[in-house]
Amino acid sequence: MATTAPGVGDEAPAFTLPDADGTPVSLSDFAGRPVIVYFYPAAMTPGCTTEACDFTSARGSFDGGGYTVLGISPDKPEKLARFRDKEDLSIVLLSDADRAVMTAYGAFGEKKQYGRTVQGVIRSTFVVGADGRIEQAWRNVKATGHVARVLKELGLAS
């Protein structure tokens, strides 16, 4: 079942997901403002911790550019709350337990892992513009150095 992943210029798939406290958060809550939506495989794993901490460290730059950062994983809200508290994360973490939003963004599917083809979360980041359209998309990225690249490409790096 192949779905076509949205690309630059396409309307970003709408979603409403629970945050780490179980409060529903919708993409439409940010209408008129740019949003960075990033998908990661699992809270409290090395790469995902690096990426979440990097996004948190860069929050001042993102805030300064008017961006809100939303991190989405298949983890349940309770695990996201533990992850947020343990790592002192200040970004919004959302739970996509059924992976429907990841699938809509092309961030779940076949990927190579340790030389084998598996089904899983494909680490990806999207910039959704104030108009609700995808302005930039990075797919199948490495956690280390990714946030610095996003900052640079958005002109937010100091």
Question: What is the compact description of this entry?
Answer:
27% of the residues lie in helices and 27% in strands. With 158 residues, the chain is an alpha/beta fold. The mean pLDDT is 93.
What's the order of the H and E elements?
Answer: EEEHHEHEHEEEEH
- Structural class of the secondary elements? alpha/beta
CATH class descriptor name: Alpha Beta
Principal-axis shape: globular
CATH architecture descriptor: 3-Layer(aba) Sandwich
Strand elements, count: 9
Strand content: 25-35%
Give the strand order of the largest sheet, numbering strands 1, 2, ... along the chain. Answer: 5-4-3-8-9
Give the helix level as a range of percent: 25-40%
| Rg from alpha-carbon coordinates | 14 Å
* Largest sheet report: 5 strands, mixed
How many helices?
A: 5
* First-residue to last-residue Cα separation: 43 Å
Average pLDDT score: 93
Name of the CATH superfamily: Glutaredoxin
Describe the 3D structure.
The chain is of the alpha/beta class and 158 residues long. The chain has one domain (19-24, 31-153): Glutaredoxin. It has helices at residues 46-57, 59-64, 77-87, 100-104, 146-153, and strands at residues 16-18, 24-26, 35-39, 68-73, 92-95, 108-113, 116-121, 124-128, 134-138. The strands form three sheets. The chain has a five-stranded mixed β-sheet with strand order 5-4-3-8-9. The N and C termini lie far apart (43 Å). 34% of the residues are buried. The mean pLDDT is 93.
